[in-house]
């Protein structure tokens, strides 16, 4: 795509551009025929080429440099951005307070188009981005010059697009919308003044005060006039949901808003841009808790899905690609009796796994055991689904969506009929050491991939490594996985015998915790012996986690390795022991383990 972009710019007459090492193309455009105002003559353009997307960013410059707007103009700028973005079919204006930067941003996923279509796709993106920027960017010049009627400026910009936006359609939809809103808002104003608890909560919470930016007055009802920072700069619907939940935890619920414009990436249902109706309602939440938050999240996802499907149906020109509702209809599955006993292929503490077929694809459906905890169960499944949507690796189990059956939701996963390496160990199935290392190398690559994306698994053990019919391994059960780059107060769970000391104590578990668990799993697989079996062999008593921690840290207990195995595999034993260091910083990272384990594997007959 980088070569195509450079060739495209040359064909358009832009020869004086620079290309940086990170695949960014930089050039400037002189504004011709759009404005007679000399203060707004040139603006820099950046084209960032990424593995899946091309991003075009056009920066607003006045007198040849980025303009820092006066504080008294910020409300007008914010209003102009909101109203302009609602009219622009592709791309959006953004303002970053930290950098005092106003720019136009357009992201397109090119990876799902044929290569021979990339040239025309890039042409359309450049044409649309430059056309929208030149047409609507003049709004901000006029604001600097003293104009304050944003509606007039937006109408002027629509006319300047030269037909890229049809003003008749917009006027009709806008008038209908404003008519509906005016009648409903008038009714609500008489009934619903600003709630005292809500006002006090937002005023006293710096996070809410910054995000929601309320202007309080006696006439103000529980609504915001247009989208503010809460809806700025998120790349997916899931990121929006996280922010809504964070606000909910702070006693404020945002509801009763409608999506008015979306652009959907053609990958995993991610939403690239999404704008909301100009007003939305707030309500005070007296006692938010985990269960009510889960109910709120489920309700929001249902509403989002309904509106997305409606938009896809009625506004197909605004959609790029498709958005798939994650709830899959039961009639898409081959076995109608989903929970039949003969379909059971496995079970654990959380749920039972049933085999099925989805559009000719063999799948496994994990259904929670306890229906009375449906809200909490579904919340866990949603978290696991989110992680799996973020991770796309051949050795990580894939998720396809959800199904509702028997009053419960289940998650539909890739089917692995070869069982787990835990079952291989339990059944004492004979497998050459080289084959075992091949399997564990592939799992290590999956783990290294997760760590590169700042995710930790936190529950690596033999039963969470599944095999397909060709013995291709898949890392599964990502329910405890977390993105460690994000602040998270929740301490991840663990399986005691395979977990690291820092996980037991809850002391900043991270990537090195996965290394410890991987080392224990590798030991279990290659020796056919559970780690620390000598601590539990002669007792039926359940191992206490603090007693186990004391054995690890104070008594320096390690898994036992018989002399014969160590003599035959000294480098493998040394590598495993390096993963069992008590201090996390002394353990090797996945990349170094992969290199050493790869050399050991290559030397085996």
TrEMBL record:
Gene3D superfamilies: Transferase(Phosphotransferase) domain 1
Biased composition (Low complexity): 172-188
Domain Protein kinase per the UniProt entry, residue ranges: 339-605
Superkingdom as given in the UniProt entry: Eukaryota
InterPro entries: Kinase-like_dom_sf, Prot_kinase_dom, Ser/Thr_kinase_AS, Ser/Thr_Kinases-Pseudokinases
GO molecular function: ATP binding; protein serine/threonine kinase activity
Region (Disordered) residue spans: 172-196
PROSITE patterns: PROTEIN_KINASE_DOM, PROTEIN_KINASE_ST
Protein's UniProt name: Protein kinase domain-containing protein
Organism: Stentor coeruleus
């Amino acid at each position: 795509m980088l070569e195509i972009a450079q060739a495209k710019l040359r064909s358009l007459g832009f020869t004086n551009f620079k290309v940086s090492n990170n695949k960014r193309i930089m050039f400037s455009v002189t504004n011709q025929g759009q404005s007679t105002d000399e203060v707004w003559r040139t603006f820099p353009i950046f084209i960032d080429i990424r593995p899946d997307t091309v991003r075009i960013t056009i920066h607003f410059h006045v007198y040849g440099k980025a303009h820092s707007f006066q504080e008294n103009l910020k409300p007008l700028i914010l209003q102009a951005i909101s109203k302009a973005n609602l009219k622009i079919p592709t791309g959006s204006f953004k303002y970053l307070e930290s950098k005092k930067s106003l720019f136009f941003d357009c992201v397109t996923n090119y990876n799902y188009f044929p290569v021979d279509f990339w040239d025309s796709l890039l042409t359309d993106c450049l044409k649309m981005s430059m056309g929208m920027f030149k047409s609507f960017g003049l709004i901000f010049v006029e604001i600097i010059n003293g104009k304050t009627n944003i509606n007039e400026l937006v109408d002027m910009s629509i006319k300047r697009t030269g037909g890229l936006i049809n003003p008749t359609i917009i006027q009709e939809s806008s008038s209908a919308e404003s008519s509906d809103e005016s009648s409903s808002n008038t009714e609500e104003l008489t009934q619903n003044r600003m709630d005292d608890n809500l006002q006090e909560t937002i005023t006293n919470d710096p996070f809410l005060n910054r995000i929601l930016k309320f202007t309080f007055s006696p006439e103000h009802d529980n609504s915001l006039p247009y989208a503010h920072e809460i809806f700025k700069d998120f790349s997916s619907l899931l990121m929006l949901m996280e922010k809504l939940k964070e606000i909910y935890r702070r006693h404020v619920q945002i509801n009763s808003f409608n999506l008015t414009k979306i652009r959907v990436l053609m990958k995993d249902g991610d939403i690239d841009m999404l704008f909301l109706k100009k007003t939305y309602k707030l309500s005070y939440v007296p006692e938010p808790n985990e269960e009510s938050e889960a109910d709120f999240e489920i309700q929001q996802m249902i509403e989002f899905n309904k509106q997305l499907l409606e938009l896809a149906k009625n506004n197909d020109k605004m959609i790029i690609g498709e958005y798939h509702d994650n709830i899959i209809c039961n009639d898409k599955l081959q076995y109608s009796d989903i929970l039949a006993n003969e379909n059971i292929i496995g079970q654990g503490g959380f749920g039972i796994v049933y085999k099925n077929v989805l559009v000719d694809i063999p799948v496994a459906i994990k259904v929670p055991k306890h229906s009375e905890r449906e809200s909490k169960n579904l919340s866990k499944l949603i978290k696991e689904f989110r992680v799996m949507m973020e991770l796309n690796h051949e050795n990580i189990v894939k998720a396809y969506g959800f199904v509702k059956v028997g009053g419960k939701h289940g998650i539909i996963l890739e089917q692995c009929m070869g069982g787990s390496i835990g079952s291989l160990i339990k059944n004492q199935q004979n497998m050459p050491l080289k084959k075992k290392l091949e399997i564990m190398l592939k799992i290590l690559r999956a783990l290294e991939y997760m760590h590169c994306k700042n995710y930790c698994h936190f529950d690596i053990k033999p039963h969470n490594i599944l095999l397909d019919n060709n013995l291709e391994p898949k890392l599964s059960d990502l329910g405890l996985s977390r993105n460690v780059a994000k602040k998270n107060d929740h301490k991840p769970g663990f399986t005691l015998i395979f977990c690291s000391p820092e996980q037991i104590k809850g002391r900043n578990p991270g990537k090195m915790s996965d290394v410890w668990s991987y080392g224990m799993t590798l030991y279990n697989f290659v020796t056919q012996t559970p780690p620390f079996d000598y601590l539990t062999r002669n007792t039926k008593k359940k191992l206490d986690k603090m007693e186990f921690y004391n054995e690890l840290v104070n008594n320096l207990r390690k898994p036992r390795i018989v002399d014969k195995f160590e003599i035959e595999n000294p480098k493998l034993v040394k590598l495993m022991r390096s993963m069992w260091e008590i201090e996390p910083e002394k353990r090797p990272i996945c990349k170094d383990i992969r290199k050493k384990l790869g050399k050991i594997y290559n030397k085996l007959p």
